[in-house]
Amino acid sequence: MPTIEAPAPNALAVEVSRYYDDPLGYVLDMFPWGQPGELENEAGPDVWQVGLLKDIGREVRARRFNGYDPVAPIRVAVASGHGIGKGVMMAWVACWIMDTRPNSQGTITANTGPQLASKTWPAVQRWRGLSLTAPWWVINSEQIYHVEAKEQWFLKCQTCAEENSEAFAGQHKKDSTSYYLFDEASAIPAKIWEKADGGLTDGEPMIFAFGNPTRNTGEFYEVCFGAKRHRWNVRSIDSRTCKFPNKNEIDQWIEDYGIDSDRIRYMVLGLPPQQSELQLIGRDLIEAAMRRQGSALEDDPLVAGVDVPDGGSAWFIVRFRRGIDARSIPPIRVAGSRIDRPQMIAKLAEVLGDQTKGRKVAMMFVDSAFGAPIVERLHTLGFNNVVEVNFGSVKTPDTHFANMRAFMWGKQVKDWLETGMLPLDDKKLLNDLMGPGWHYNRTNQIVLESKEEMQKRGIASPDDGDALALTFAQRVAPPIKPSVPLPRPTGPRSWMS
């Protein structure tokens, strides 16, 4: 490869501007491939990197941003096995945007502070320093900014702790590019994704998410494999097809764990696990219940479970079940911010007082955490078939579980899913049932992950799942029908004649 000589400053700016919609050309020409130094033995990007850089260029050209009318965001997600060069790719994209888009503003983050500080950010600093445009930039431990526009033209690194979510808000560039780079995106909290989404509303916005798909829930799963996939340019990359990973080590992993194991799926194949290591209920079990056909027995009682919100982002949920059937009667779902306690009481009284699908509710179970006053009022109104359930109670029918919530989820719901029927396409319930993790306590009992712990790792509160679980709080016997007396025998041969 011929020696690359840096052109004069003005000429370099003209040269770089040619790559506005050509990130591959930028990467090939702006770094000293094959030259003495760090890249002496490097020839350029891997095949998957070439393909993705070309795709990004095509998306830029398709949008034709004119400098003032906003265009649709460029959204790129890469789920992969280990060692394929994700960090390098993120650094190239960052350098390309910084150099070709004056006054662009970016934020880069990773799943943990140590990952950001020791791997993600150093990779960007390294490639920024290797580029022909390195003299344009000031590089420090928190930010890279243009030497002539510190406040307007920069890339900053920011930890993704949920309490720092506001640091991702307010990033807008009507006449340039606002962009976000997420490393190990599986573990980045939902709140961070939400705030970043707010920075993609004007100008020529972009977001790039990379990571091993270690979870089968959460935002990264949804954009790579779930309901949001159609909005993203998505790659799922097998480490074995890339030039960087140690193939002998990968072969040993496969030999040790098996090609079909969840560990190999996310470590090598770039696919999410069927069931995460912490997950209590697997996706396969839930999806089978959503496909299953059947019907309840005629005398199965109608049971309702009620999850009461504490306000905020939680929901008021009522779910219904008759035996194996939790599908026929749709749930009642109202955002907690849109319903107050008197309205909840009125709604539940209506459910209890009327027939639902031709049947009376035989028993209603209400979470006591925020529902105790509601239960008391319903009793006052004469509804004695309402039972308050204390999720935290240690009095459980099975001592293998630490409390009632763990018992209802880990025993009742999980066992019921083997034969039960769920709504056909209820994504919220699917994610809720997959969401909670579990662990053993000091006395070897199963403990279900709390809502607070779930929210810390970016998983939404499982309000729908809790409402379904409440329908298993107690066994409800079929209604006793009045017996019909047998006709008395008559006639000459009757013993009663």
Radius of gyration, whole Å: 29 Å
- What is the 3D form? elongated
How large a portion of the residues is in β-strands, by DSSP E?
Answer: 15-25%
Number of helices: 16
CATH topology of the largest domain: Rossmann fold
Structural class: alpha/beta
Average pLDDT level: 88
Describe the strand arrangement of the main beta sheet, using strand numbers: 3-4-5-2-6-7-1-8
Low-confidence stretches: 1-7, 493-497
Write a structural description.
This protein has 497 residues and is α/β, with parallel strands linked by helices. It folds into 2 domains: 9-269, Rossmann fold, CATH 3.40.50; 283-470, Nucleotidyltransferase, domain 5. Helices cover 34% and strands 16% of the residues. The strands form 3 sheets. The protein has an 8-stranded mixed β-sheet with strand order 3-4-5-2-6-7-1-8, sandwiched between helices. A 5-stranded mixed β-sheet has the order 11-10-9-12-13. A two-stranded antiparallel ribbon has the order 14-15. Strand 9 and strand 10 (315-322) form a beta hairpin. The radius of gyration is 29 Å and the shape is elongated. The model is unreliable at 1-7 and 493-497 (pLDDT under 50).
